[in-house]
Design a protein that fits this description.
The complex is a heterodimer of chains A (428) and B (317).
Chain A (H helix, E strand, L loop, with lengths): L1 H24 L18 E7 L3 H14 L3 E7 L4 H10 L6 E5 L3 H6 L7 H5 L9 H6 L1 E2 L2 E2 L2 E13 H6 L11 H12 L15 H14 L17 H15 L15 H6 L5 E5 L2 H6 L5 E4 L1 E3 L2 E4 L2 E8 L6 H11 L2 H9 L20 H9 L11 H6 L4 H11 L2 H17 L2
Helix pairs in contact in A: 1-3, 8-10, 9-10, 10-17, 17-18
Chain B lengths: L6 H9 L6 H40 L2 E2 L7 E2 L3 H8 L1 H31 L7 H9 L6 H12 L6 H7 L14 H29 L3 H9 L4 H29 L3 H6 L11 H11 L3 H30 L1
Antiparallel strand pairs in B: 1-2
Chain lengths: 428, 317
């Protein structure tokens, strides 16, 4: 216990020291002005990313390094620890030249000035109007652009074609409404044994917002106001979506582990091929099929129809303390080029960050990819400065709301949740 | 405290002049003093750099609005008044106190039990002492991950084993199923990890009691329970106070086990105070507020330690 206490004390002290000394001693970071041109002069650029995005970041870097003098070195950190890593690095004025972050955290980082202002550089790009608008908005703070899209991940319905056939459902006819989704999940669940109709992350704020909110949007509801300072989670649309998932859990159609799923074993649960249909990230399509499970893809719909998606993924910008802004921009501008979007992203079955490249020579080979790419125009990326603290963090008021709405007094949870989330969103 | 007079100095002063013989002595003494300072300086530098400076800075930070990159601005006492409005701080304080009570009682009882079991030299006792201490060799974060894996319904063997024994039926989530099971998982982890270490400290206390006292008690006809209550416990008081201080301080600063094992859930039921500090600093990026909670927690710890060390000193005397 003594060593444990000592280690904690030293760690806290060191973190505080690092942050404070560095903040106190730091000078001008050259955040604005200077040469706007992209430079390729053989500089070595450091790029940080979270584990979930590592593969795509490395694919970008590899292709860029092969054709440019600049060299990009990618370092990935565990997803949960990444925000803390960035905050410590910022406090120590030791941010990397480039860093990516979950797109929903982008307004917070932009407002804190962790990325360089790239408004003029981005404005000079020929393709600026074709770059995923929801992502660009997320990287904007007070009218200035700080980040651009890096990877795109959207929420879709993923269903197991073999289980659909066994349950007597047509594997080519996925649900077009959320009510149909529930019926099909019930049908698959009747197979019994260790097969379950559906699965969701009932103890994971990020998982629920990613998979439930599109149904709310498809029904014409909203979750946040435009400025991201007022919650709208007490809407009838939200209540209806929660009620539907709640009934699936109570009937035992959703796997019992749905209640405790905090995220880490979510993918594994879908990979074992025992779940009929579940909303999840589009990038998991390949990861689930790797395990020999034949999957179909459908848009997430509202209770009575419509379709939408949560346009997630990562945004990327130039670290505010970097001295190689021109070289870093050379890389960022290249990632938005046709070459990078088609030969790196589309070739690896990713979703292009350019709306005009949704249909490309690689996507045509798989109609599911065409469907996923086409959803971007219908999807949304919620925008709020305090998004992480209000929605994604395990201690967020949103997770309390989710738990109450799914497993306790739903009406009270949504009403109280709306007030708590609004308070959290408005905190300075 | 006793004072000693230096005969050399008195002689020198009495002579009224520096004699040739005393000069090398004084030089040697000065050299020895410098040597002492040199020996102590690495530790002193570390204490100043990693304890005093951060301590002052955290106090300073708690009086400011402290953005990550922009210059700080004075906002005292907002960071402190904000603590009262923070519901999470309230629930985390209550939980941390509850956890501290549970862990201190259980950990102390088990550590003392283990120490009493292995205090005498008998064949094979060395093996048991080593076995009890061995979990200390595993880093605490690694141990937490190990338990997370073992208790997982997906990949861990515990549920399969209990299922085969007929003790559980179907799906059970130990780390997030209910507030009690989550707390129990963390308590079992901490007991497993730290009981051996506390046993070792208590063992040194036990072995410092002279065997003659026990013999005298036996001659006087004292039974086992009487011997334990009248001799072992009173003579162990300094050691017990030390162990309790370590346990209480460690528990009030609990973080790793809950951060890794339960993520503070379910429903914030296992969110400790240090986790709230972490959330304020690294999720909300509000370093001033995090520093203010740290300062309050530090104050509570200082009060606890002063009381406990006061007891320790009184008993020692």
């Amino acid at each position: 216990m003594a060593r444990y206490r000592a280690r904690r004390a030293v760690a806290l002290a060191a973190a505080a020291l690092l942050m404070t000394v560095a903040t106190a001693c730091g000078g001008d970071d050259g955040a604005t002005g200077g040469d706007q041109a992209a430079v390729d002069d053989g500089a070595t650029l450091t790029l940080w990313t979270r584990a979930a995005t590592e593969a795509m970041s490395k694919a970008y870097a590899e292709a860029y390094n092969a054709t440019h003098k600049n060299k990009v070195q990618v370092t990935a950190y565990p997803n949960e620890e990444y925000p803390a890593k960035l905050a410590s690095a910022a406090g120590a004025k030791a941010l990397p030249d480039l860093f990516a972050a979950d797109v929903v955290f982008a307004p917070q980082y932009a407002s804190q000035g962790l990325w360089l202002d790239v408004t003029d550089r981005f404005g000079a790009l020929d393709v600026k109007d074709k770059v995923a608008p929801a992502h660009v908005r997320a990287g904007t703070w007070e009218g200035r652009t700080y980040a651009v899209p890096h990877t795109i991940d959207m929420s879709v319905m993923l269903y197991n074609k073999d289980l659909y056939t066994r349950a007597g459902l047509d594997p080519e006819k996925p649900p077009t409404t959320l009510k149909e989704f529930a019926e099909q999940a019930r049908a698959v669940d009747k197979l019994g044994g260790d097969v379950n109709g559906t699965y969701f992350g009932g103890n994971c704020g990020g998982c629920v917002e990613f998979t439930f909110w599109p149904s709310v949007w498809a029904a014409g509801g909203d979750v946040l106001d435009d400025k991201g300072t007022n919650a709208r989670v007490d809407s009838p649309e939200m209540a209806e979506v929660f009620a539907l998932y709640r009934s699936l859990y109570e009937e035992g159609v959703a796997a019992p582990a749905s209640r405790d799923e905090a995220g880490p074993t979510w993918l594994g649960a879908l990979q074992n091929g025992k779940i009929g249909i579940a909303p999840g990230p589009s990038v998991w399509l390949g990861l689930i099929e790797e395990k020999g499970v034949k999957m179909g893809v459908a848009p997430i719909s509202g209770p009575d129809g419509g379709e939408s998606t949560f346009v997630g993924g990562d945004a990327i910008g130039i670290g505010a303390t970097s001295g190689k802004a021109a070289q870093a921009w050379d890389f960022l501008a290249w990632t938005m080029s046709d070459e990078a979007q088609v030969e790196v992203v589309a070739k690896n079955k990713g979703v292009p960050t350019r709306t005009d490249l949704a249909s490309n020579k690689y996507s045509q080979a798989d109609e599911r990819i065409v469907l996923i790419n086409s959803l971007m125009a219908k999807g949304r990326t919620p925008y709020a400065r305090n998004f992480n603290a209000s929605f994604n963090d395990p201690q967020s008021p949103w997770l309390q709301t989710v738990r109450g709405a799914l497993f306790d007094d739903a009406a009270a949870a949504l009403a109280k949740g709306n007030a708590d989330i609004t308070k959290s969103l408005q905190q300075g | 405290m006793t004072t000693t007079t230096d005969p050399t100095r008195e002689r020198t002063a009495g002579a009224g002049a520096t004699t040739p013989a005393s000069r090398p002595l004084r030089r040697r003494r000065a050299r020895r003093a410098w040597l002492g300072i040199a020996y102590a300086s690495p530790t002193a530098a570390m204490v100043v750099l990693f304890f005093l400076v951060p301590l002052v800075l955290v106090g300073w930070m708690s009086l400011h609005r402290w953005p990550l990159l922009a210059p700080p601005t004075l906002n005292a006492p907002d960071n402190f008044t904000g603590i009262a409005d923070n519901d999470l701080v309230r629930s985390a304080t209550w939980f941390t106190v509850k956890y501290t009570l549970v862990i201190t009682v259980l950990l102390f009882a088990i550590s003392l039990g283990l120490a009493l079991l292995v205090q005498h030299r008998r064949p094979g006792v060395g093996m048991f002492r080593t076995a009890f201490l061995l979990p200390m060799a595993v880093g605490f974060a690694s141990a937490s991950l190990l338990f997370l894996g073992l208790l997982s319904d997906e990949i861990g063997p515990v549920n399969d084993l209990l299922g085969r024994l007929g003790l559980v039926d179907g799906y059970v989530s130990w780390t997030s199923g209910s507030a009690n099971s989550a707390l129990t998982s963390a308590v079992v982890l901490v007991l497993w990890r730290f009981a051996g270490f506390n046993m070792l400290i208590l063992l040194t206390g036990l072995q410092a009691i002279p065997p003659e006292i026990y013999e005298a008690a036996r001659v006087d006809g004292a039974g086992r329970w009487q011997t334990f209550r009248r001799i072992t416990l009173p003579l162990m008081r300094p050691t017990i106070a030390l162990v309790l201080t370590l346990m209480v301080t460690g528990s009030l600063l609990a973080f790793d086990q809950f951060w890794i094992l339960t993520r503070g859930g379910p429903d914030n039921s296992t969110t400790s105070l240090v986790m709230v500090i972490y959330r304020e600093a690294f999720i909300r990026l509000d370093l001033g507020s995090a520093a203010a909670i740290s300062v309050v927690l530090l104050g509570v710890l200082v009060v606890f330690n002063v009381i406990q060390l006061g007891v320790l000193r009184r008993r020692s005397n």
